[in-house]
Protein 1
Amino acid sequence: MIEVFAPYLLIFLVWNDLDAEETMSVSQDLFISEQVCMAAGTERLEMIEANRQLRLEKFKAEQIKTEAAKFFCVRQPRDIQKYSPLLDDN
């Protein structure tokens, strides 16, 4: 068996400033390097912005103007922490 560790987590957030709590959407994907993670986040952000611009031209809705998106690439820890309170000496 070959085990592959993908150390970078892309966290992508999309929301509308008019009602951020109700409209927040979060997605997560794993990537093999920070460079690949950043490229994927940037590409996705550009696609979302292009789609938003098209909808803004087509519908002229104020709500579309307040949409926002942001992403982060976070390095994942390599070690696994095991929780076993019954075996803990403390």
Protein 2
Amino acid sequence: MQLSAHIMFADSYIELTALSGPAPGHRLNRWQQSSPAPRLLLLRCADAAELRERLLSQGHSVSALMQAQRCLPGEPQRLARFRWFELLDEPLPGMLTGCVEQLTPEIVFAPAAAGHPNTVHRLTALYHRAGELPPVLREFAGGSIELRTDRHAPSAGSFITGVEVAAASLQTCASQLQKAAIDFHRDGDALHIGAPAAGGAWLKIREQPC
């Protein structure tokens, strides 16, 4: 069984997920015995079917197009639908990489789900191990979430090593972290949380207006 929770922002989200018990055949099963780390990167696209066909015509290896839905909490309950496919041959080492088309973005990215007491409101950057992005992923570079090289990252493990988010108030965010007994340190204009306390990827929080 896959257990998941989501940290929602206006146009993106972070999924916290784990497998409970044996999961033969599950796409994340290969990392079930590994330490927590970023293992799933889904890149947003406007038309998953069209993109998949284009990648196939260019010689890339991709999975079948899959449709899925998830019932989100709330009253009334909301049904989020999406379709996606996986980029096979592990283009990013240590990660499952795919492309997703949100069929119900007005439900998934409802403003009510994106408000957080710590004032964090946006995912701004992902940091990765040194090396160029595979050609199949370059068309996604330059979007609202930057991809940056982590020059101090180890050469093994998950390709994504760190995450940067924006908070409207760094003081409020620091207060919330203290209340939750989460270790962090402040370095100039940012708060830093080490990878062991942040799900396997270090976390940087910068102050930025909504």
